[in-house]
UniProtKB/TrEMBL annotation:
Protein's recorded name: TRAP transporter small permease protein
Organism from which the protein derives: Pannonibacter phragmitetus
Gene Ontology molecular functions: transmembrane transporter activity
Chain coiled-coil ranges: none
Keyword vocabulary terms for this entry: Cell inner membrane, Cell membrane, Membrane, Transmembrane, Transmembrane helix, Transport
Tripartite ATP-independent periplasmic transporters DctQ component domain: residues covered: 26-159
Function: Part of the tripartite ATP-independent periplasmic (TRAP) transport system.
Residues annotated as transmembrane: 21-40, 52-69, 89-111, 131-149
Pfam families (UniProt xref): DctQ
Membrane topology: Multi-pass membrane protein
Cell location: Cell inner membrane
């Protein structure tokens, strides 16, 4: 159980670290756009849209990594001072009652839009824009899937901690809230 959680977390960590490089890409491309526009008087819709795509991919594909490293915003009125077992129980309940249903709703509602987008090979509204909007829309499904997987990993880790698994319990003891 705990091993499965570690594998899922490793996957999401690798994806999160890889897509974090998109931030550098965003900065460099935005810098190039500014130079092209104000120094050379030129612009490119495709290049400007690429910034939006990178931004979308960055946030959609790194959300599960943020959950893995406990970087999401949390109202920690009670959580911070709770025992490791209570933290595990809160995380287990939170994932089961809120996170996984939210991911299911996102998948359920996004699927038809992504499917249609792929069928028509949806592209930019701009003639010189990126002709692959369907790829960006697919990232919404990947986002919900990776987040659900990480939620499952968190639930497995919490269940292991509640059943007395020392390494799992230690992960909740280190959490600050």
């Amino acid at each position: 159980m705990f091993r499965t959680a570690q594998v899922i977390t490793s996957l999401n960590s690798a994806i999160g670290r890889a897509v974090s490089w998109l931030m550098l890409g965003i900065v460099l491309v935005q810098f190039a756009v500014v130079i092209l526009r104000y120094v050379f008087g030129a612009g490119s819709v495709w290049v400007q849209e690429s910034i939006l795509y990178m931004h979308g991919f960055l946030f959609l594909l790194s959300a599960a990594y943020a959950l893995a490293i406990d970087a999401h915003v949390r109202v920690d009125v009670f959580y911070r001072d709770a025992s490791p077992a209570r933290k595990a129980l809160v995380d287990l309940a939170g994932c089961a009652l809120f996170l996984l249903p939210m991911c299911a709703v996102i998948l359920w509602h996004a699927w038809p839009f992504v499917q249609i987008s792929w069928m028509i090979r949806e592209g930019s509204r701009e003639t010189s824009g990126i002709p692959a909007l369907y790829v960006l829309k697919t990232a919404i499904l990947v986002y919900a899937g990776l987040l659900a997987l990480q939620g499952l990993a968190l639930m497995l880790r919490a269940a292991a901690a509640l059943s007395g698994n020392a390494p799992a319990l230690e992960t909740f003891a280190r959490k600050e809230g």
